[in-house]
Amino acid sequence: MTSLSIECLSRCIAILLLTMIAGSAAAAEPSPALSKIIAEANKEGRLDVWAGSLSGGLLGGVDGMTKEISGMNAMFGTNIVARITPDASSVPQLLNKVAVSQSSGQPAPADAFLGTTIHMVTAVAKNMTMPVTWASLLPGRLDDHFVEADGMVVRILTTLPGGIVYNTKLAPMKPTSLMDLLRPEWKGKLGTTPYGAAFDLLSANDVWGPEKALDFAKKFSGQISGLVGCQELERIASGEFAGFAMDCGGRDWDNYARAGAPVNFAVPTDFAGRRYYYMFIPKNAAHPNAGILFTTYLLTAEGQDIQWKTSNTDLDTFPDSHMHKVIADYEKQGITFREFTIAWWKQHPETIPAQTKIVEMLTKQQ
Q1: pTM for the predicted model, two decimal places
Q2: pLDDT at 366
Q3: Which residues pair with 108 in a beta bridge?
């Protein structure tokens, strides 16, 4: 090869590399809407978030949230200082704190709020939410499928409510359905939540219906030997209970399994649910743009990856997500999932009265 040919080849390679770098930079260029949020969030300079028993856990706890905020600053070139406040209150209690702050004319204690369908319905009904054009912030990644309640809330992650967690050494059988738990060999070996987790979904007219769900709960109450919170799965891992139903989210068990505990999880063939957790920005947020930017970061590929690594879940609406594969693997086994969205929830007012009766049944025995 002549020196001229080598020189031409070198120039071509250099031009190709410059083109690739330019294309990569263009791909990473924030949209006009996101650029505005970045600038305003940087001016605010602060982000207030909760690390509660549920919200913090689903976002990876303080460790996960610290990584997410650090990633947000690195990705968007911001210098936002975050205050992560531990708060073990329930999600309804946290939501009430936001409502009280709004009614009293005070800034919300958190700039972004994480909750599931019922919490979002409540927040929207009480006019607590700030509308955001979420899809415009990450065009090409987000679209209308990710946004619910007329743009007031955006999906963040997927959970599988209603599952069965069991101790593989002590369970009398591998459960495959909720009805399996009514078999005599399970009597006295089961725990359940004191708040009837997922029974609201089960009671809907287009799922089991109130009558069938109440009948099941009556029989199930005779099988249980104690009450267990969804954040107490170590009691199944330790052998205090051979099984636990119904689970809230369907992924916490994996932490124990990875650590070597004899724990597994079953999606019931007679009730397979897929439910989302959402974020909304309180109307009275002290740092609304920082809240929007944090939420946006959670929806980037990097943010979703941190969520998966720190909390074993991400958003299955993204085709390349881990939860998309998890659900696809269950579907290959013949399981059909019901999707419980905000629109679905609003059409089923019968769920809460039925769940209230079921909670009375389950707790009066203990």
Answers
A1: 0.87
A2: 63
A3: none
